Amino acid sequence: MIELKNIEKYYATKGVKHYVLRHVSTSIKQGEFVSIMGPSGAGKSTLLNILGMLEEPTYGSYEFMGEDVTTLNERKRIELYRNHIGFVFQAYHLIDEMTVYENIEAPLLYKKIGGSERKSRIADLLDRFNIVAKKDLFPNQLSGGQQQLVGIARALAAQPSIILADEPTGNLQSAQAEEIMNLFQKLNKEEGITIIQVTHSEKNAQYGNRILHIADGVIKEDLVV
Amino acid sequence: MFKLNLKIALRNLWKNKTSSFINVIGLAIGLSACLMLLLYVSYEWNFDKQAKNWKNVYTAMTNVPGEGNKIAGTFNGTTTALGPLLKQNLPEVKYVARMDYGKKSLIANGQNSFKKDSKFAEPNILKMYDYEFISGDAKTALSNPLSVVLTESTAKTLFGTADVLNKSVRYQDKENLTITGVIKDLPENSSNRFDFLMPWSFYEILDPSVKDLNWNNYSFVTMVMLNPDANIDLVNRKVEALVKANTPQTPQSQPHFLYQASKLHLFGKFENGQPVGGNIEQIWLFMGLAFGILLIACINFMNMATAKSEKRAKEVGIKKTIGANRTSLIFQFLTESMVLTLVAVVLAIALLEICLPAFNGLLSINLGISYFNAASWIGILGIVVSTGLIAGSYPAFYLSSFNPIQTLKRKIKSRGILTVSLRQVLVIGQFCFAIILIISTLVIYRQIQYIKNKPVGFDVNTLVEIPQDGELKTKFELFKTEMLKSGAVASMYQSSVSLSHHGRNFMDMKWDGMTKPENTVMFNQVATSYDFIKTNGIKLLQGRDFSKTFASDTSAVMVSASAVKVFGYKNPIGKKVTIFGDNAYIIGVFDDYVWDSPYKSNNPQVVFLNQKQTGTITMRLNNSNNLQSNIETITRITKAFNPAYPTEITFINSLYQEKYKSEKTLGILSNLFGGLAIFVSCLGLFGLVAYSAEQRTKEFGVRKVLGASVANLMQLLSFSFIKMIIIAIIIAVPISYFAMGKWLNNFEFHTEISWWIIPVAALGTLSMALITVSFQAYKTAKANPVDALKYE
């Protein structure tokens, strides 16, 4: 599903190149649950951003579902966001002005999904995540764990084939973190959604079936759990 | 999607109350100022355009030849002979209607008598202007000489009802006229207004000189309606040839041309016979003011929106990652600005309704929202939409261009060089406009003061005048005796015109030592009785006033100092001049006084003794009595002479006040809108500072912990804003200096731009801005650093 070849990323400041990623090559198949681990500044978030097409690599090729996406135009990229990729952020990044319901609805509106279908999908998600009672609340009225649940529900609303999660439990207490990780595992196992997460925690990494260890921009280890 | 956008827009407005308030109030003020001025503009613009055929209605104009083949002046007076000549010889002419200029005359229903605006006109006038007849028939209304057409309100004043067809009214206490029609009141924005209209044939009975087709007396208006397909240039060439062929040609012959009647109001200024604008310039100025203020409000919106970009950037980033494209984001931001504009416009219309009476009072006009017709409502809608677009487009394009990863990583360069400099440019532009308005206001105010303080040449206080009507014409001497005996009046005289009058100009004048065969200098004539100088107190430079002790004074004249200059007489007393072919001898020279425009030197004037030319009675009140009793005495005696006429006493100083009206209007408007511009600009500045302070709370917290004082922090926050104001001052001062210098040069008598005006305007603006900024800066600087630092 994902094919990275020789990805390089550096920032040039005053003529000096600071490498963030060097010679990253890997492939991720449909249905995998990959955890990217490494110390701070290792380049794991950059890698995830490149996977999510939020950043462009300086060199190298990246194929997403058989399509070279390094040269993708904005319209095509947005198509991918609408249909295939769901993002989950450490800081949740819900839209403050929208209620829970509206936050989950937003991607469906952009995808131009009809009203009745939209309603049933949102009802389904609210039900599954046990947040029906919260649907008319605003993000700042929810706890962090609840907000992240909404974030995941939003990511799932468009029925993506892959979820990219950047430290999804980084801001959460351990009990809430466990809940989220269980949810990811379930989504991966039962619905076959590919999940790529960046995490610091060895424990969270164990929920997946593959771990990429990154240090100084280089993949040091590629473990199957 | 749209519904959600709308909801979010409203929530955003509610959440950011300060900025919403600033934006809504700013836009509402801008829009209501804009609407108010547009109301005024549409009122002026639609002057004389109510009739269906207004495009084809023309007025005959007359060019007055001046020195050296130039045209000295252009006016809309014509002779009685012109109309019939045009009608007979020009196939393009559909209708011709001669009118008089109109005057106040007495109309009475029994004891119920009033002085109302009257007009005489040929029946064809009813075909040019489609007056709306409530009763009566437009085709026959003016066919009988002894008929009259009343306006609805005149009918109601006289009879208490508009149902007055075939009843009779008494004109000037002389003739009974039958009412043959009642029409709807004429709109205020029409030039040929009247309260009652009488047929030309009746005018011919009253004044035989009207019947005579002459080429000398230019006291009539000739209205012409052309066929719709007529070519006006061609017609005007024919008019010129026609008049040339049919009148004796002398250097004083006055050529005619036709001019669209509706243009006379706004494009009524002529130079050398060519139209050179007129009141339209004021209209452009007001339009500029209106849109300037609206633009200032729009700039506020843009600045606030882009200043908030950091907050909104996160939202943009998230939306992009869940599949929003740029178009949908732009659409969302435009929805927000449209919602805001819509709220503002509702407020603006409310504001307009509240302020309109005061505005009408200030300008002494009578505007109502009803002057907006369907087309103007579409225009307003256009303004609203374009305001929303202008205000919203920049933020929309700017914000929607954010790259999601940068915004989500909070790496947005909100203080990059380019974005800030655009915001700075906008703020500088706002304040430039405001400062220019302040300086203009001060200069206009100074100019009005200068003209007001310029002596008119006599003591205007305790001088009153009354129109010389009815018995006062024939029994003036008796009236004078009784008045003087009553003690209310110290001295009085009658004259052909009021002290304050527009020109009654003529050129038929000869004097000894004239270099040219024909005089081409315009003189102003006043016919008077005894006690002219004694009453009005104009300064006598040489010689004496008219006196009964000199029988020869019937052929004597008094002339103004400027007239003596034209004659070139060293010792003018006793010298001969010839007026209208009659010899007259100069007995007195008086100083020039202000009788027409106070802004320029008036024509030379000659005053002669002729008791037949009645018009106005001027009286100097007796100072030893109180005003009230003087007025009562005058009213009582006048009423005894003229029971049918209402007594109208006018104070001369109020007549002189009238002369400053148009400049006063300009002063009021620039004051008002200058103030508004400053207010809205400061509002925007306040918003920007508030936002900047909010953004920098953390920085301020750190600085405070490191030991910065409140003053340090205030300086830090204020300096960048004050810098912008100073730049604005530097730009605005030369512009306004130049512009106002040019404006002042329009007046022959004008003040200079005093040096102190500039520092006053600059310091005023600066201190306003400083107060605005430091209020917010102080609040931020005083805040507890812990509050700022405990976030994150």
From TrEMBL, chain A:
Mind telling me which CDD domains this protein's record contains?
Answer: ABC_MJ0796_LolCDE_FtsE (cd03255)
Listed GO CC annotations? membrane protein complex
Q: Does the keyword Translocase apply?
A: yes
Pfam families for this protein: ABC_tran
Record-linked SMART domains: AAA (SM00382)
Record domain ABC transporter: where: 2-225
Q: Provide this UniProt record's keywords sorted from A to Z.
A: ATP-binding, Nucleotide-binding, Translocase, Transport
Q: Which Gene Ontology terms cover its molecular function?
A: ATP binding; ATP hydrolysis activity; transmembrane transporter activity
Tell me which family the UniProt entry assigns to this protein: Belongs to the ABC transporter superfamily. Macrolide exporter (TC 3.A.1.122) family.
Descriptive protein name: Phosphonate ABC transporter ATP-binding protein
Source organism per entry reads Pedobacter paludis
Q: What are the leading ranks of the lineage?
A: Bacteria, Pseudomonadati, Bacteroidota, Sphingobacteriia, Sphingobacteriales
From TrEMBL, chain B:
Keyword entries, A-Z: Cell cycle, Cell division, Cell membrane, Membrane, Transmembrane, Transmembrane helix
Membrane-spanning residues: 21-43, 283-302, 329-354, 374-399, 420-445, 672-693, 705-733, 753-775
Q: Describe its membrane topology.
A: Multi-pass membrane protein
Q: Does the keyword 4Fe-4S apply?
A: no
Domain ABC3 transporter permease C-terminal per the UniProt entry, residue ranges: 289-404, 672-785
Query: What's any GO biological process attached to this entry?
Result: cell division
Would you say which domain of life the source belongs to? Bacteria
Domain (MacB-like periplasmic core) spans 20-241, 521-628
Q: Which Pfam families match?
A: FtsX (PF02687), MacB_PCD (PF12704)
Supply the InterPro entries for this chain: ABC3_permease_C (IPR003838), MacB_PCD (IPR025857), Macrolide_Exporter_MacB (IPR050250)
Annotated localization: Cell membrane
> Which GO MF terms does the UniProt record name?
transmembrane transporter activity
Supply the name of the protein.
Answer: Cell division protein FtsX
Name the species this protein comes from: Pedobacter paludis
